[in-house]
UniProtKB/TrEMBL annotation:
<keyword id="KW-1133">Transmembrane helix</keyword>
<feature type="transmembrane region" description="Helical">
    <location>
        <begin position="168"/>
        <end position="186"/>
    </location>
</feature>
<feature type="transmembrane region" description="Helical">
    <location>
        <begin position="222"/>
        <end position="242"/>
    </location>
</feature>
<keyword id="KW-0592">Phosphate transport</keyword>
<feature type="domain" description="Major facilitator superfamily (MFS) profile">
    <location>
        <begin position="1"/>
        <end position="380"/>
    </location>
</feature>
<dbReference type="GO" id="GO:0016020">
    <property type="term" value="C:membrane"/>
</dbReference>
<dbReference type="GO" id="GO:0006817">
    <property type="term" value="P:phosphate ion transport"/>
</dbReference>
<dbReference type="Pfam" id="PF00083">
    <property type="entry name" value="Sugar_tr"/>
</dbReference>
<keyword id="KW-0472">Membrane</keyword>
<feature type="transmembrane region" description="Helical">
    <location>
        <begin position="275"/>
        <end position="292"/>
    </location>
</feature>
<feature type="transmembrane region" description="Helical">
    <location>
        <begin position="356"/>
        <end position="375"/>
    </location>
</feature>
<feature type="transmembrane region" description="Helical">
    <location>
        <begin position="36"/>
        <end position="67"/>
    </location>
</feature>
<protein>
    <recommendedName>
        <fullName>H(+)/Pi cotransporter</fullName>
    </recommendedName>
</protein>
<feature type="transmembrane region" description="Helical">
    <location>
        <begin position="313"/>
        <end position="336"/>
    </location>
</feature>
<feature type="transmembrane region" description="Helical">
    <location>
        <begin position="249"/>
        <end position="269"/>
    </location>
</feature>
<dbReference type="InterPro" id="IPR036259">
    <property type="entry name" value="MFS_trans_sf"/>
</dbReference>
<feature type="transmembrane region" description="Helical">
    <location>
        <begin position="87"/>
        <end position="106"/>
    </location>
</feature>
Amino acid sequence: MATLCFCRFWLGFGIGGDYPLSATIMSEYANKKTRGAFIAAVFAMQGFGILTGGIVTLIVSSVFRAFFNSPAYQENPTASTPAEADYVWRIILMFGAIPALLTYYLRMKMPETARYTALVSKNAKQAASDMSKVLQVEIVEDPQKVEESTGGKEFGLFSREFLLRHGMHLLGTAMCWFVLDIAYYSQNLFQKDIFTAINWIPKARTMSALEEVFRIARAQTLIALCGTVPGYWFTVGLIDVVGRFRIQLVGFVMMTVFMLGLAIPYHHWTTPGNHIGFVVMYAFTFFFANFGPNSTTFIVPAEIFPARLRSTCHGISAAAGKAGAIVGSFGFLYAAQNRDKTKTDHGYPPGIGIRNALFLLAGCNLFGVIFTLLVPETKGKSLEQLTGEINDDKDVEMGSGTQTVPV
């Protein structure tokens, strides 16, 4: 237990810290016309990670199920979980070390972003050198531009000037991420309970442990393939056309609509034979989460804050999201328990039931609609225009083919 907690700590401290770094690096190297698509593409790779995790689980559980066939729990509780089943989760967990090692190697080869080096550190020569290596083009520094910029102006996160310029922006990005993750993580972590409630997955007691792992992985992989991954890549294709604000607003609205579509006729969906309609609706909530706020909450904080504080503000927003994930994970676990004490999971008090929990998640999405109004549209604007880090109105772009820095 202590080892797992330690792993989770470093996951949050290390890999979780890559959220603001990845978004900021991509935003500062991209140009204004395709910046949204590039940042969204970075985040969309998460979808392939989810899909890969499901496929790995399917393969491992299938192999063990074939070699160690076990009876259902209701037939023989002890034999339903063979000793070899303990290796399943260990193999799946260890597989995650492969992308972690690749990430570590690639991260070590990445320089500081040229915008930070030029606008904050005031080192145009180093910025030009770093940009030349990354973009593989010859870039010449422009010291005059560095002097004209206001990127080095000293105002901190807790200053009055930051509060006036970006206080509402930070509130908007943090709260949107917070309420989104309440709904999103609730959906993700408790798919098993929801699928069991609508009879798509058999009751746990009717399966062996390996059979249950296989069926849950198959259901989650199907949802990821049909809803999660397409949602990510719709965002990549359309974000620089439609804009961040509209995608986020429509995403929250459609998530609300589909959750209400699940909750209001919930007893209809739990009737045998109707689970296919529920699964389709459920997949659409994931589609509009990813073709919506799950992508835009990652993108916008990397665009609207000044270079000096960009990754910090993105990190604060992401941390608010993880706080929402904690609320959603524990809150839904307790709230979704059956009202009848005899039907709750062992050790849990009666809750409000899955149907009412879905109503609560729909309410979280409505709050997301409200807080979205605090976040500005960033489509078609350079980072310096958005943050006021240049003294003139000239459009200055880093990745647009110009040959001077800051660009």
